[in-house]
Amino acid sequence: MRGARRGPLPGFGLALGFTLSYLGALVLLPFAALLLRALQLTPARFWELVSTPRTLAAFRLSFGAALTAAAVNLLCGLLVAWVLERYRFPGRRLLDALVDLPFALPTAVAGIALTALWDERGWLGALVAPLGIRVANTPLGVLVALVFIGLPFVVRTVQPVLRGLEPALEEAAASLGASRRQAFARVLLPELRPAALTGFVLAIARGLGEYGSVIFIAGNLPERTEIAPLLIMIRLEEYDLAGATAIAATFLAASLLLLFAVNLLSWRQRRRVGAA
Amino acid sequence: MIRSRPLPLLAATLVAALFAAPAAGQPLRLLNASYDPTRELYQELNATFAREWTAKTGQTIELQQSHGGSGKQARAVIDGLEADVVTLALAWDIDAIAATGLLPKSWQERLPHRSCPYTSTVVFLVRKGNPKGIRDWDDLARPGVAVITPNPKTSGGARWNVLAAWGWAVRRHGSEERARALLRGIFQNVPVLDTGARGATITFVERGIGDVLLAWENEAWLALRELGPDRLEIVLPSVSILAEPPVALVDRVADRRRTRAAAEAYLEFLYSPAAQEIAARHHYRPTSPEVMAKHATDFPSLELFTIDEQFGGWARAHERFFAAGGELDRAMARR
Amino acid sequence: MSERDRAPAAPRWRDPRAEPPAVRRALIVAAVAFLALFLLLPLLVVFVRALEKGTAAYLAAIAEPYARAAALLTLRTAALVVPANLLFGLAAAWAVTRFEFRGKNLLVTLVDAPFTVSPVVAGLLFVLLFGAQGLFGPWLLARGVKILFSWPAIALVTAFVTMPLVARQLIPLMQAQGSDEEQAALTLGASPWRMFFRVALPKVRWGLLYGVLLCNARAMGEFGAVSVVSGHIRGSTNTLPLHVEILYDEYQFQAAFAVATLLALLGLLTLAAQALLDWRLRRRGGA
After folding, report:
1. Which of A261, B79, B118, B145 has its CB 3.0 to 4.6 Å from that of B279, i.e. a possible disulfide?
2. Are the Cβ atoms of C120 and A170 closer than 8 angstroms?
3. Half-sphere exposure of B34 (CA within 13 A, CB side)
């Protein structure tokens, strides 16, 4: 129990008051507007709007690509975090700092850069084209963009845990005769799992909503490479506010659920750490 | 930790400088919300009009542009984008604005030629040498031909594409079944669907996707000039649609911003010989017969039908083709 | 945690925490290859394509009036949004970490909420609020207040999207630090504000700066949400990221990449500043 109870420190009213009004104006009010709009639709109409083949395909692609990209990032993120924390090699510092690039680089810039790289005449696109692999304008392009966008999450959640691990843990495992592989699977992985999972879910959440970097590279073909946020945009452009609202509301609910899962995870993680 | 803090002071000064508005009085400003392929056209038209207006009234005028898919632009104006004039790809989009009361429903009768100062048509842009031998509309539905068109749901130009294909089939075969099959065949051949005409052109030319791009005549010429006369060529189908992109004053906005006089003058200017000449140079078909005669060689004649004669106007065409569950949805559905 | 523990000087023979050199090398190569593919190459391609027509064309693209107007709008937006989110982050972190109250978990979830909302949905939310067909739009428009398609909406959506960034940095930091010093300052007779500015704020300043940097980078780079509410009026409501898209759509690829380098440089600058802060923080933490 670290934070003090109400009493010794001043400013509770002011801080909470400001926080709540800011949140209220900037977050709750817009959410309420969306809810109000969505409630104007009857359940049957709502279902009709979100269950068209095109919408379902967009949801499938968005969730599928976000999940796959997050899985790639889970594996590669663990690897990168491990290498950056445990090994010394030239350029390590630079790479470590660059991991945050997808946070800091505007998504539109990422979009045109990835497209320039992966389309059939790009540096990498031309390289894989003879193998019959096309990246730009296919679901693979969506995946590439989402891997880029979600790259920092797992790395950044795992790194501090890895840094904070007691050397004694691994030494004990080794002295008890465990091979390096066993020590990793039995001792290290359980320690890293909660953090990695948090990073994984965060990467999914970010990937689900991503728009800027994907639209340049995806080709945006309905039912094939059209992501859900783009479909919302298109519905808006067709003056189909009801359709946009229905898809957005569904999408928002899914994202909030995910976020809730993250917070639950980190809460359990904290409790575990606290209990240890 | 007590020391002097020049940092906050510096920051405050910087922010103040950032927001210091230019002291000069607000010049007269017009906002023209237009569709995608008119970017280059209005750049030149605006400069000419601004010069003429200043010469006539002594007032400086600043013309602002906003471009995007035609439907998207109409949506923005409906949602409150303060455009004094709209110059969109099709009448239906302006009708949608009129439905909210921003301008009278009879807007199209206010200017000559049903408010279309220039027209265009749909042509094919193909790779140099036309390797797939694309000559007419039915070639687009052949297996193995990849067709690039923007999304007709969001792009005005693409709606003209759909109607042109349908109209050709009905005229050629006299059968709606054949037209339906053609539309379906074409859309099964579409590998990428961009939201605007510009996105589609970039997909075709820059990303090198597809064998044929369905484009506005003016957009095709622009792409040819800007991106590769050595890589592309234009094919004219035997029959196409007369694409009529209209212009209109948004009364409520112009009255609120007190720009009506300038906005009306701007729209009338679009019909002037100077503006018609500029339009023709940008490969829009001028409505002025004199200018058209002068540029006759630039506009090869082909058989053109209008939306009114073939489909009975935009309201009916929209209902039949582009509304949810219409011909387009059926053609685009998988299998 | 001193770095020395793991320095290569450590005994080479059978360190229980080290992998065989071959494995180590393979892992390093794999990780570096992954980062090169997904981070370095995209960054490189922006600069290469921006300079493909030479520096003169590059400079011309950046100095062009519409680009300058877009840059100014982007700077202004950040100048409004970052301080607002800074205040919010401080207030939220103070409330959450220094007091116990009911609904705290819900509050923390709400603070995080904008982070998971798709930028497009964020834009839509504000259209639903302030559009001419929206909740408050008609009332506001009737009174001549314009929000959508002008800078207030751009600032609002940007604030929404970047809201959690400062708070997220501060909450764990302040939680970990505890509040003993603050209480000591009060016991010694400092006024609440004096305690806040002299004790509480200096304690978190590096974490705060970190959050502000990130918030700034995201505020200047936001694309999807701003694209929904901007109206795309050249020289008036175009931000730098939107300007990149417009240039791209006008076949001015080199110019698009040139303007994109400005944003990429901003990102790199942010990363450099963060690395510097990190280094400083760790040095202090170790001392």
Report:
1. B118
2. no
3. 22
Same domain, yes or no, for C29 and C145? no
Query: For residue B111, what pLDDT is reported?
Result: 95
- Which range (A151-160, A221-230, B126-135) has the least confidence? A221-230
- Of B169, B150, B168, nearest to B159 by C-alpha is B150
> How much is the pLDDT for C280?
77
Report yes or no: A100 and C19 within 8 Å, Cβ to Cβ. no
| C133 shares a domain with C160 | yes
Domains, chain B, ranges and CATH?
A: 28-116+244-270 (3.40.190.10), 120-242+302-332 (3.40.190.10)
Distance (Å) from the alpha carbon of A259 to chain C's nearest alpha carbon: 7
Overall number of domains in chain C: 2
Domain end, chosen from C27, C50, C73, is at C50
CB atoms within 10 A of CB C10: 11
Within 10 A of B333 (CB to CB), how many other CB atoms are there?
A: 15
CATH topology of domain A53-275: MetI-like fold (1.10.3720)
Chain B residues inside the 8 Å CB shell of A238: 71, 75, 153-154
Compare all CA atoms of chain C with the CA of A34 and give the residue at the minimum distance.
Answer: C125
- C118-177 pLDDT, tens digit per residue, is 899 999 999 999 988 888 988 988 888 888 999 999 999 999 999 999 998 899 889 888
How many C-beta neighbours within 10 Å does residue B248 have?
25
Catalogue the E-assigned strands of C3-48: none
**Are the beta carbons of A239 and B333 separated by less than 8 Å?**
no
Mean pLDDT of A228-240: 84
Q: Which residues of chain C have pLDDT under 50?
A: 1-13, 286-287
Q: A48 with B325: CB under 8 angstroms?
A: no
* Domain hosting residue C24, numbered range: 1-50
User: What are the backbone dihedrals phi and psi of residue B271, each rounded to the nearest 5 degrees, phi first?
Assistant: -95, -5
Within 10 angstroms of residue C32's Cβ, the number of other Cβ atoms is 18
- Are C118 and C204 found together in one domain? yes
Longest dimension (CA), chain C: 80
Question: What are the tens digits of pLDDT across the range A10-34?
Answer: 889 999 999 999 999 999 999 999 9
Q: Which residue of A has its CA nearest to C136?
A: A33
Say whether both C126 and C60 belong to one domain. Answer: yes
Q: What pLDDT is stored for residue C166 in this prediction?
A: 93
Residue ranges in chain B whose pLDDT is less than 70? 1-7, 20-26, 334-335
pLDDT at res. B2: 45
Q: How far is B196 from chain A (nearest CA, A)?
A: 11
